[in-house]
Amino acid sequence: MLIDTHCHLDASDFNADRQAVIERSARQGVAAIVVPAIDVGNFEAVRDLAHSFEGGCYALGIHPICIKNATEDDLQRLERDIQSVLDDPRFVAIGEIGLDFFIPELAEDPWRDKQERFYASQLDLALKYDLPVLLHVRKSQDIILKHLRRRERIGGIAHAFNGSFQQAEQFVEQGFALGMGGAMTFTRAKQIRRLARQMPLESLVLETDAPDIPPSWLEIRARNEPGEVAGVAETLAELRELDPSQVLQATGANACRVLPRLASLMLTASA
C-alpha cells in the first residue's frame, strides 16, 4: 500500500490545480495522503481537504516555525478542535509539531524556549487523547528525544529524518517510524541513504513533504507532489535491493501501525 505520510496539500502552491494533483496521485497508486496542519489558521482547511477525496486524512498541530506568532489561546483552540474531531476517522494524529533549531533565530531564546513549551504542551495533548504525533525534527533530535523520554510512550512519525544511526534507533525505541522522502533520492545524501539501507524496514515510512523537498528527478525549485512518493518507494527498493512491492507492503503496514486511526480508515475503505 502506497501512502504519503506527510504532504502539505493545502498549501497555496496547489491552489490552481489541487484536484488534478490528487487525481494524478491516485493514478500513481497512492492510497492515502496525510495532510498535517501548521497553525490554527489552517485547521479547518486541512480537515475539509482530507474529506474531499478518497484516502485523505489529516493531523492538527502547531508547527515550530509558526511558534513566533502563536499564543496560549492557540493551544486551547487546538485542544478544543481535537475534542471536536475525535470521532472523525480521517483525523489520525497531532502534527506537525516539534522543534526547529536549523533557523538561527529560532535556535535562540526567546523563540527556542517558546518552541519547547509549545512542543511539550502538544505532547501532553497527544498523551491525554491517546494520539500519535507527526514530528518536525530539524537539528533538534536530542532535545526532541529528551521530551519524549519524560513521558509515557507516544509514537508516531519522525518526519524527514536526518539524524544519526544512534538517534534513529532511539526514535524507533520510542515507537516512531522514520519518514523517508525526496532527500533520500539524492546520491549526495549519504547519511539518509545509509539509514534507508541499514535501519530495519519495519522502521521506515514514505513521504513527500509536498510541495517542498522535491526528489532528484525534479528540478531543485520544482513543486513536489504527493504522486512522487511512488518514485521515493522505488528508490528505497533500489537502496535495499528489494522488489518495490515488498517496500510498498512494508511501509504501508508501518504507517498503519504507527498511525492506528489510519489503519482503521484504510480497513473501512477496503471493506
CATH topology: TIM Barrel
In what order do the strands lie side by side in the largest sheet? 1-2-3-4-5-6-7-8
Q: What Rg is obtained from the alpha carbons, in whole angstroms?
A: 17 Å
What is the overall shape? globular
SS-based class: alpha/beta
Mean pLDDT: 96
CATH architecture: Alpha-Beta Barrel
Total domain count: 1
Strand percentage lies at 15-25%
Count of β-strands: 8
Give the helices and strands as they follow along the chain.
Answer: EHEHEHEHEHEHEHEHHH
Description:
The chain is α/β, with parallel strands linked by helices and 271 residues long. It has one domain (2-270): Alpha-Beta Barrel (TIM Barrel), CATH 3.20.20. It has helices at residues 18-27, 43-50, 72-85, 111-128, 141-149, 165-173, 190-198, 229-240, 244-258, 260-270, and strands at residues 2-4, 30-36, 56-60, 91-100, 133-138, 156-159, 176-180, 204-206. The protein is globular, with a radius of gyration of 17 Å.
In short:
It is built from 10 helices and 8 strands. The protein is of the alpha/beta class.
Question: What is the secondary structure topology, with strand pairs?
Answer:
Layout: E1 2-4, H1 18-27, E2 30-36, H2 43-50, E3 56-60, H3 72-85, E4 91-100, H4 111-128, E5 133-138, H5 141-149, E6 156-159, H6 165-173, E7 176-180, H7 190-198, E8 204-206, H8 229-240, H9 244-258, H10 260-270
Parallel strand pairs: 1-2, 2-3, 3-4, 4-5, 5-6, 6-7, 7-8
Helix pairs in contact: 8-9, 9-10
